[in-house]
Amino acid sequence: MTTTHSASTRKISWDILRVFAVFAVVVEHITHQAPVNHPELGGYPFSLPLQFGASTMLVISAFFVCVTIGRRRWLWNRVARLLPAYFAAVIVTYVATRIAVTVFDRHSYGPGGWLFGASVSSAPGEFPWLQPSVHDLFGNLMMMQVWIPGFHWIDASYWTMPVQLAAFVVAALLFPRKWLTARNAPLLLWSLVIVPVVLRFTARTDDSPQWVKSIFDGLALNRVQLFGVGVAIWLWSTGRMRVWHLGVYIVAALVAQDTHAYFTDTPSTVALGVVLLIVCFAAGGRDWDVPFVRRLAPAITWLAGISFGVYLIHQQLGFILARSLLDLGATPIERFAASFALAVVLGWLLTKLVERPVHRLLTQKTQSHAGRSGKSPANPDPSPLPISQANTVGAGPPTSGESFAAANSQSR
Hints:
Elements: H1 12-37, H2 53-68, H3 74-105, E1 108-109, H4 113-116, E2 119-121, H5 134-141, H6 160-174, H7 185-202, H8 210-218, H9 224-237, H10 243-260, H11 266-284, H12 291-305, H13 307-313, H14 315-327, H15 332-372, H16 404-411
């Protein structure tokens, strides 16, 4: 039985999960990934090596695909929310990296100068930084870096973007064909777990041709089980899957995730399993609207609203800031605090200046048309929450408690 909530209902539990997932990524990148990529940035007061935040975001994103997919122009609304912010983040990160690496490694350039020119000389220190090229800028804007090895990542956090866009397109194609029925749902979900693992050890090996690796990695087949988990949790929360089936499926998906990593990061997989239990509590239980949380609700909601922007712009620019502060003699705790604060500030600016206004501009024609035809759009104003994450990141619809059944009835 599906519980239907009013359109104004908003569950603080989902905002908490979005904030937790995104800032788990931020803290892991500051304290663990930064010293891995740039050893000179080591020495933080603590390290969070568990990589579960981005995976959690993909699970929540898939859950809310099921919740919202019946809305008017569903796919276009997501594209209009995701891509402008992504393009802006790529350009800003490219320019900042070109400036920073020019200073760090003392580059000089030929035609095109510091912004577009090729380096003709440099004097890197013990730990040189990669200087992105115009070639890399184009590849990242087109999201080709995951398909073609010749393109370098301007920011490695961008890997979730093509994954989510591909998932959204597939969902939009399959939804009108009633792809998730009681009969075929188990087969579809289990294929997302089993088939990629089989391909990993038969087709996509270290010795496979590059085109095979590009297809497997480009479609992120090592991650599709996470979307299956999100769908399974939604099915369970609406009474369409038994609790034992959900439990077995989540365990199988976690084993598959660890298998794709050749069991080299089992602690992160275990941590993800614990977080998925919490996600299940949010999906199937009461809202976490207790007095303590209620007092923090404005801050939690605000952070959830900028979480997509935070995710897009925190990593590479945080590394640059940490290196700059290191050269100035800042302590590890000062570098951590500054990098964390930078992620929040830049995420807020990206959300306020790009994500929301451009989304409003790109969707206002649809809303105006709905008004002229005598119908009210389901959501006349863009949500303050990002559509994509968990995004990547903090994904979620404007009303995270709204049932899929209600949305589906609107689309008929």
